[in-house]
Amino acid sequence: MRLHRFRRVSVLVLCAVLVAGALGACSSSTTTSSRTEDPTPSWATPSVSPYTTGMRKDVPYGPSAAQKMDICYPPTRSKATGAFLLIHGGSWASGDKSDFEPLCGVVARLGFVGATMNYRMFDAKATYADMLADIDLALATYEDTARTDGWTISKVALLGASAGGYLALMYAYTRQPALPIGFVVGMSTPTDFTDPAFVQSADAAQYSTLSNLLGVDLSQESVDARQAALKAASPAYRVKAGDPPTILAHGAKDTVVPYSNAVRMATRLAIAGVPYELLTYPNSDHNLSDDPDVSDRFLSLVLSYATRYLG
Questions:
Q1: 252 in a domain, yes or no?
Q2: Would residue 26 count as lying in a domain?
Q3: Is the pTM of this model over 0.90?
Q4: Which of 76, 102, 155, 279 has the smallest number of CB atoms closer than 10 Å to its CB?
């Protein structure tokens, strides 16, 4: 699980049509990216403006320059509506809220309020606890800003890719936000840092990434003594009965986050009695780009969960 190889995605993946007139096919002109890039999806036709009623860009939710979010709104106003908060990947060290800008527009066209956020990363000496605190602030600002603009958010879904999926799951399982979480989605998500598949393949760069994320010194020599910290930072060990329904999407050939992470997470969800779906991409690496049929099912499942859990 070479976490130091997580990168910002540049390819359009997970292409499907969910709603007639709402979603379009992905452009085929994008340069093919490395197989290890984050699976940040783009579900909108690039030639069509994704925003139908307007958006707010760079809404600050804290004092840091990194604490900004973009919000977009549906074409038809309703008394109350569900919402999505989209969290980019990038190994907790790179990436940008613009990675999810097309999806934010699609969410709006489907009738939900959408937002995509930046957060403090390793360059700001942020640990995962700081990043989760940023989601707290972002959700509060999200709700307040939407209300000011005439939208009352009833529930929110968290959706993240790779490192962003990790933050989405950790937040959903460990925090008690004022804004109820309807469900959570993790794509190619690291969920268990005690997974033997990780321990057996970890290198110095991997341990450096985890040291930054956890805020403790980790090395091959100290990993056994840090099991408590690794478990505390792993979504698989934080899920419990009553946590939000969860969708996992993972490539069976993932060379960045081992597929066993997804299996171990699914087992924990089942034990806790949390509704979940694990969609396996049998031919895909980390970017989930080699199984378009599974992508069709994944996108339909996200919409089904939104209809069921954000109502």
A1: yes
A2: no
A3: no
A4: 76
